[in-house]
Amino acid sequence: MKKIIQRNLPLSQTYTITGYNYVPLIDGDGTCCDNCGKLISNMVYVTDGNGGKFTVGNDCAKTLTIPQSDAFRLQVEIEAAFNEGKALRSKIQTNLKKGNITGAYKWESKDGGVFIVFLITRGGSSMQAVNYPGVSLTYIKDILITKPE
Ligand SMILES: [Zn+2]
Predict the structure, then answer these.
(1) How much distance in Å is there from the Cα of 47 to the middle of ligand 1?
(2) 57 CA to middle of ligand 1, Å?
């Protein structure tokens, strides 16, 4: 089992997760983790229930004392969102570099579904649904192209 070291946020306190967000470090408005002080881009917002609001990194959030439902949310939703963004970015960049695609753009269906369309170099396109657009699109916003006419 991983050894948990207490940092700024006391382990005796229970925190609840109020939200999460991804802010690329490249945007220049990086935030430091309220727990360990490191510059973070995968942010998890927590409150101590006494009016205290904190922003911690994804990894630090796992070390805090949080209710089981929040620990579950962290694992199945928040980490999944961060991972989706990271994977999409890597997929676009790798395929651009290999010359497999000429670009990728965002497409929204009538019912509000968000997709990334990959323009295949040899013709045609393929689509991938985005499950966590709020986070994933921030990961790739600088490498997407506008939809061709
Ligand atoms: Zn931290």
Answers:
(1) 15
(2) 5
Within 8 A by CB and 6+ apart from 26, the residues are 142
Reading the block at residue 57, the tokens are 């990194």
* Cα–Cα distance, 70 to 58 (Å, whole number): 13
Residuewise pLDDT in 10s, the chain (149 residues): 556 667 899 999 999 999 999 988 776 667 899 999 999 999 999 999 899 999 999 999 999 999 999 999 999 999 999 999 999 999 999 999 999 999 999 999 999 999 999 999 999 999 999 999 999 999 999 999 999 88
Size (the chain), residues: 149
Contact 48, 54 (CB under 8 A): yes
Say how many Å lie between the CA of residue 131 and the centre of ligand 1.
26
Encoded amino acid at 2, one letter: K
pTM, to two decimals: 0.85
- Note residues around ion ligand 1 (Cβ under 5 angstroms): 33, 35-36, 57, 60
- Cα of 9 vs centre of ligand 1, distance in Å, is 10
What number of other Cβ atoms are within 10 A of residue 142's Cβ? 10
Alpha carbon of 39 to ligand 1 centroid (Å): 8
